[in-house]
Amino acid sequence: MRDIRNYSLLAHNTFGIEARCSRFLEYADEAEAEEVARQLRADGKPFLIIGGGSNLLLTRDFDGTVVHSAMKTCTEDGLLMRCGSGMTWDDVVAKSLSGGRYGAENLSLIPGDVGASAVQNIGAYGAEVKDLIVSVEAVEISSGRKCVFTNAECQYAYRQSRFKGEWKNKYLITFVTYKFSDVFTPRLDYGNILSELQTRGITEPTAQQLRQVIIDIRNVKLPDPKVTGNAGSFFMNPVVSRQQFENLLARYPQMPHYHVDADHEKIPAGWMIDQCGWKGRSLGPAGVHERQALVLVNRGGATGQDIVRLCRAIQHDVRQQFGIDIRPEVNIV
């Protein structure tokens, strides 16, 4: 178990923002997770549980303990994969495909760790990880006991779970078990997947070809955090009522949208931000990516407060033009 005082979090947030924590605890197996829980109880100070830092915006030093998982073991049983919470998510996707397990192709190259996938219900290109999760194993911080939660108990919704709500800071996730399919059923009708396949002359893609196309699309649209600090998609796509959607569609006939149910429609936040003229613009050292308006970037030397100011300015303009409140997907600390 790693236990470090006055620790820099620069390597633990993809925005590339310098911030420190009073203490850093990292567990590499279940026994260490139980010990971390014991120390958190004994310490009684504030704590923050982080994953790969790809969904995190630090606005200050953290006067408390930051907890991180380094559990990277993975066991396979037929269509099941039981993955340690510190394992990189995209490694899970690659490993699933190499073993003839399908269903995660559209979630390729989403940054972050396995534990965060279960907390955030990560999703992209019409797919969500909730459709693969069987169970989540964790250590309860208040008691140190091991727990196993079913998919249903986690109450997954769009970018939501009980781990983000009533269970926040109550558990240290240790393992997530996913169940894949032995039949490849490509989902191509989201974003520009189909057009990119057509450009390559591919009409019936293999799982590996679909994964590669999605990786290539993401690499073109999203900046590399090693070069330009960012946290991927900063805002969630808002789900609006049928009446509000129809009113907006009358004003913007070309507005992209995605069906949710009979009473709701999802509108891409990136499109609204672009319509407000923010794509490629900056507010001090914080800016909006020139190829994807959903991504806020650190142009160099930005603080967390700089990013927050840009976030609020964008929210204001979207609210003024569309009457919609867009909410950050990123955890702001």
Can you characterise this structure?
The chain is an alpha+beta fold and 333 residues long. 28% of the residues lie in helices and 27% in strands. The chain contains nine helices and 20 strands. It has helices spanning 30-43, 89-98, 114-120, 151-154, 193-199, 207-221, 242-251, 269-275, 304-322, and strands spanning 2-8, 20-27, 47-50, 56-57, 62-69, 74-77, 80-84, 123-124, 127-128, 133-140, 146-150, 171-179, 229-233, 239-241, 258-261, 264-266, 282-283, 286-288, 295-298, 331-332. The strands form six sheets. The protein has a five-stranded antiparallel beta sheet with strand order 6-7-12-10-11. The chain has a four-stranded mixed beta sheet with strand order 1-2-5-3, covered by helices on one side. Strands 13-19-18-17 form a four-stranded antiparallel beta sheet, with helices on one face.
Which features does this protein show?
333 residues; alpha+beta; 5-stranded antiparallel β-sheet
Query: From the alpha-carbon coordinates, what is the Rg to the nearest angstrom?
Result: 20 Å
Unreliable sequence segments: none
- Got a strand count? 20
Assembly state (oligomeric): single chain
Shape: globular
Summarize the structure.
The chain is of the alpha+beta class and 333 residues long. It is built from nine helices and 20 strands.
Write the SSE topology.
Layout: E1 2-8, E2 20-27, H1 30-43, E3 47-50, E4 56-57, E5 62-69, E6 74-77, E7 80-84, H2 89-98, H3 114-120, E8 123-124, E9 127-128, E10 133-140, E11 146-150, H4 151-154, E12 171-179, H5 193-199, H6 207-221, E13 229-233, E14 239-241, H7 242-251, E15 258-261, E16 264-266, H8 269-275, E17 282-283, E18 286-288, E19 295-298, H9 304-322, E20 331-332
Parallel strand pairs: 2-5, 3-5, 4-20
Antiparallel strand pairs: 1-2, 6-7, 7-12, 8-9, 10-11, 10-12, 13-19, 14-16, 15-16, 17-18, 18-19
